[in-house]
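Notes from the pairing session

We agreed to fold both candidates in a single pass and log them together. This is the raw record for the first candidate, unedited. Please don't reformat it; downstream parsing expects exactly this layout.

Candidate A
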Amino acid sequence: MASALEKGWLYLINNFTDFQLASIGSFVIHESVFFLSGLPFIVMERLGYQQKYKIQGKVNSVAAQEKCVMKLLLYHICVNLPLMIGSYPVFKYMGFTSQLPLPSWNVVCFQILSYFILEDFIFYWGHRILHTKWLYKHVHSVHHEYATPFGLTSEYAHPAEILFLGFATIFGPAITGPHLLTLWLWMSLRVIETVEAHCGYDFPWSLSRYLPIYGGADFHDYHHRLLYTKSGNYSSTFTYMDW
């Protein structure tokens, strides 16, 4: 007997093409996860809620928050969406599928863990390169406009940086051609992770308190507070590359 997930998945593949699901579907899921996980931190900062867990005492102005949101919408539509559409042939060539049966959870978990490790390694070196003098001044300084980050600033960056570091995110899936379910789960977890790293709050339940190699908000907030040539903490998820 088919599970609820399989029934829902059957509806998707019967009503939409692989291309629609992989491009438009991925974009819709990305936007939903990103804004649903990131917007609460704007509200918390405005209301002063959970202030005792806020890493920095400073808060962003309403104008600065609104500027971030408006530019994100522009960049997501003009950069992220075309990237998702353009990368579809590569994924398809490497064996990507959306068809049933769904992959086993063992396969899904192994692939996603592998993607996190690969992404972190590539991101570390790419991020470190962006902190060289010329690239920081002309590209990466856009992301560092927010010395006091909040969740949505995680994807606030120069379009060139979105493409450059976006390569780290899609590299693992691009070379393995995963099932669409795996791709969507990976994308969702990566978005939640980067939003949490930029949220500006170090909660008692933060994963970094229980998993020593996980960076988290305090680790990355330190990176935003210091001068660009002295900051360190270049990794996206883990801490061992910076060690």
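Candidate B (folded immediately after A)
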Amino acid sequence: MEDRGSGPELILVFSGKRKSGKDFITDLIQNRLGSEVCCILRLSGPLKQQYAQEHNLDLDQLLGPGPYKELYRADMIRWGENRRNQDSGFFCRLATSGDQKPVWVVSDARRLSDLQWFRSEFPRQTHSVRVQCSEETRVQRGWSFTPGVDDAESECGLDSGVEFDWIITNEADAPSLDEQLQPILKAAQEAASLACGTVSGSWGSPAETKKRCSK
């Protein structure tokens, strides 16, 4: 619906279970493309900011990887659901306001309403990516089942009923991430080239595209 002229040429909406490796993969994509071309948008960022303000909590620790956020995760999920029930696009709008990079990587879509919002606002640009791995691998990475978290919509909302554009299997015995990410990186390079005024099909190396987009 909202195809903003100064907005992105490509939006990659990532989802996956806890400890599936979403952040690792989205950080890898940004590193390959460069921050001049690609930005990472975390829907949990504005959610945690609002939650911290209303509950007088330490935002830096809520955003970090440590145990602090786990103390509040279940309540924060319930609080976020109440906000979304009032306005399903509330956190999506906050996360996307102001950024004009040609490629957006949304690292943490968790609900069907998240994906639906991007497909409604940016129908041409939006593509969905699922990161998956076995439960055994997730346990090895430190995951354990938490009632009220792992059985909530925030973890299960995109488990079924979605036809993803790409599926990345983040396992030791799967094809390499370089191989699996190749079509995604190619699409991102082509999108960046269009946004930076280069001729389609002549985008060249990632370094060349970064240079063009930083002018």
